[in-house]
Specification:
Length: 165
């Protein structure tokens, strides 16, 4: 998952899939190159609420403002389904590397230079890094989360309603 710092004029874009980073304006998200959503009725459902994108962003910004080291970002892709879907607004919180535990959802800088949010799977003592995987991915990421590429953990999430995206 990739993103841009929330203090810029663009809304952060996090990548939940293998499609790449797509910066987005606060009101308009532009995505290209991702596979079309599955028409399979057994596909994992995206969590939604009845609030619009702007309200989700405002709520996330209010939560982020309540603590130091927090930032607001917008996700893209499907690798974190069924927990986060396309357009989910996340609040990230800085955390010390020594406080990480399996199962935490972390933001980190991937090998390709993209920011990613995935789940910690296990710690590799030999390489001093955490293995990570998207919830909807079969394979673990090629990169490890280390003290040098760790950005933070997911503190809160806000999913705009389907009809209001």
């Amino acid at each position: 998952m990739s993103y841009i710092p929330a203090k810029t004029l663009t809304a952060p874009a996090l990548q939940f899939s293998r499609c790449g980073v797509f910066p987005c304006l606060l009101l308009v998200l532009v995505f290209s190159g991702c596979a079309a959503p599955s028409e399979d009725p057994s596909a994992k459902a995206v969590p939604v609420t009845d609030v619009g994108r702007m309200q989700a962003w405002k709520d996330a910004e209010a939560v982020a403002a309540m603590g130091e080291g927090r930032m607001t970002v917008i996700g893209a892709g499907d690798s974190m389904l069924p927990v986060y879907g396309e357009g989910t607004v996340l609040v990230l919180n800085k955390i010390d590397f020594s406080e990480l535990k399996p199962g935490m959802q972390v933001a980190y800088m991937g090998n390709s230079g993209r920011e990613v949010v995935h789940v910690l799977v296990g710690y590799e003592e030999s390489s001093k890094g955490w293995r990570v995987r998207g919830l909807n991915n079969e394979a673990e990421d090629g990169a490890l989360v280390t003290r040098y590429n760790l950005i933070g953990v997911v503190y809160a999430s806000f999913a705009p309603g389907d009809g209001m995206r």
